[in-house]
């Protein structure tokens, strides 16, 4: 009986020892383990970008990830264009590129090499205001003023869109020239937010510039 028990204990010890040896062989020790290689951190890629900004030729060497907004503000020091949400939702960064308005925070500067860019500084000056700027002042189309540069750039482009016959979601007939009315203007300006709530005054200003009675 004792011999049989001793044999069972010896067999169990042998199996345990074998299992431990197999595990040790399969799993490297901490000393031998190599740290996992992390993702490479590539150096920024720079490219030359030529723009005509407010009638002036500009050449910049930029990180290819630089937005048009940051190129204007940080590199050309045209700080009239505002950085609001930085997600294309507030319209404070609106500028006019090759005759079309866009949110400069959502586009890369390198995508517009050779383009003509108009910012609020290029529309008018304190000595010679653009008609839209003058109308905003007359109709109190701003309060804090933060969104105003984007509002004005967008408003100027809106009138040009209507003049070209480009329809909006508010246009009753997609095959006819859009009407210049409050509903049309509100729809087209809906991407420009005013936290002060000067919307009705902004519509009055745009309407006056369009040649109608506000």
UniProtKB/TrEMBL annotation:
The keyword ATP-binding does not apply. Transmembrane segments: none annotated. It is found in: Periplasm. Keywords: 2Fe-2S, Iron, Iron-sulfur, Metal-binding, Oxidoreductase, Periplasm, Signal. It is an enzyme of class 1 (oxidoreductase). Heterotrimer composed of PaoA, PaoB and PaoC. PANTHER family: ALDEHYDE OXIDOREDUCTASE IRON-SULFUR-BINDING SUBUNIT PAOA, OXIDOREDUCTASE, IRON-SULPHUR BINDING SUBUNIT-RELATED-RELATED. This is Aldehyde oxidoreductase iron-sulfur-binding subunit PaoA. It comes from Duganella vulcania. The lineage of its organism: Bacteria, Pseudomonadati, Pseudomonadota, Betaproteobacteria, Burkholderiales.
């Amino acid at each position: 009986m004792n011999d049989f028990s001793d044999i069972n204990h010896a067999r169990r010890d042998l199996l345990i020892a074998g299992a431990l040896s197999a595990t040790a062989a399969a799993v490297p020790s901490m000393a031998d383990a190599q740290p996992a290689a992390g993702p490479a951190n590539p150096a920024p890629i720079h490219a030359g970008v030529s723009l005509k900004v407010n009638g002036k030729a500009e050449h910049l060497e930029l990180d290819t990830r630089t937005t048009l907004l940051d190129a204007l503000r940080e590199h050309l020091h045209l700080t009239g264009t505002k950085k609001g949400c930085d997600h294309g939702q507030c319209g404070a960064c609106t500028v006019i590129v090759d005759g079309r308005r866009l949110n400069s925070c959502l586009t890369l500067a390198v995508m517009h090499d050779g383009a003509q860019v108009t910012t609020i500084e290029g529309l008018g000056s304190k000595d010679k205001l653009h008609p839209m700027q003058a109308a905003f002042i007359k109709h109190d189309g701003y309060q804090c003023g933060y969104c105003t540069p984007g509002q004005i750039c967008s408003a100027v482009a809106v009138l040009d869109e209507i003049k070209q016959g480009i329809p909006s979601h508010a246009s009753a007939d997609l095959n006819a020239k859009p009407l210049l009315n409050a509903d049309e203007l509100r729809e087209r300006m809906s991407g420009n937010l005013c936290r002060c709530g000067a919307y009705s005054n902004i519509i009055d200003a745009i309407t006056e510039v369009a040649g109608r009675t506000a």
